[in-house]
Amino acid sequence: MPNNSSSAERIREKKKLFLAREQRITEAAIGLFLEESIERVTVSKIASKSGIGKGTVYKHFLTKNEILIRIILDYERNITKSLTQGIKRAEAGDPGAAAQSYFHARLENPRLDRLMQQLEDRLIESGDVVQQIEDLHQLRRSNEDALSGLMTQLIDRGVLEDVPPHFHYLACWALAQGAVELCLNKTWNYRTDTAQLMKFITNIGVTMGNRGQYQDPDSKPSKKHK
Questions:
Q1: What is the CATH number of the domain that holds 68?
Q2: pLDDT tens digits, 167-210
Q3: 177: in domain
Q4: Can you give the pTM of this predicted structure?
C-alpha cells in the first residue's frame, strides 16, 4: 500500500519549492526594475538574475506582465496585512494605529512604492491581466470598507472630524503620495535625513483629521434666534 503520509509530504515539499522559486523570480525582477527602466527588463534578464532557467520562469509566469502584476499584488497584500493589524489596534483603543500602519507600509521604502505605481500605470490598460487587476481593485475596495467602518466609529466617538469617512483615509493616501514624491524629487533627494523625515510625516499623518483641527471656510456661524 502507498504511504499516504509520505506522498502528502512530497506534495507539500514540491509546493514549498515552487513558491520559493516564484519568490526568487519576483525579487530578482524588483531588483532589476529598481536599476533599469521597466521596458528594458526582459524575462531573460529576470531568469538570469534569479538563477532560474527561462523555461522554468515561464512555468510560473506566462508573460512579463504576469510577473509585474504578481509584484503589485504582493505589495498591496503587504499593505493590507499591515493595515488590518492597525485597524485591530485602533478598534482596541489606539485611534492612530491604522494610519501609522499604513504610512509605515508605504514610506518604509519610497523607491519601491514609486515602482509599484509605475508598474500599475503600465498594466492598467493591459488586456492580458484583467482578472488580476480586478483582484487588485477588489482588495482595495475591501480595505476601503474596513477603513470606512473604523472612521465612522472614530467620528462617532468624537476622535475625528465629522466629515465623510473617506475624507480621512483619502487624506492619508494624499499625504503618503506626497511624501513618496518628496523623497524622490531631484530637488530634495540630496538630503541625508530621509528616514527621519518619513517618520515625522508619519507622525503628522497619525493625528491628521483629529477633532478640532478643521474649520470649513465655507461654513457660516450659526445664528441664535430669540
A1: 1.10.357.10
A2: 999 999 999 999 999 999 888 877 788 889 999 999 999 999 99
A3: yes
A4: 0.88
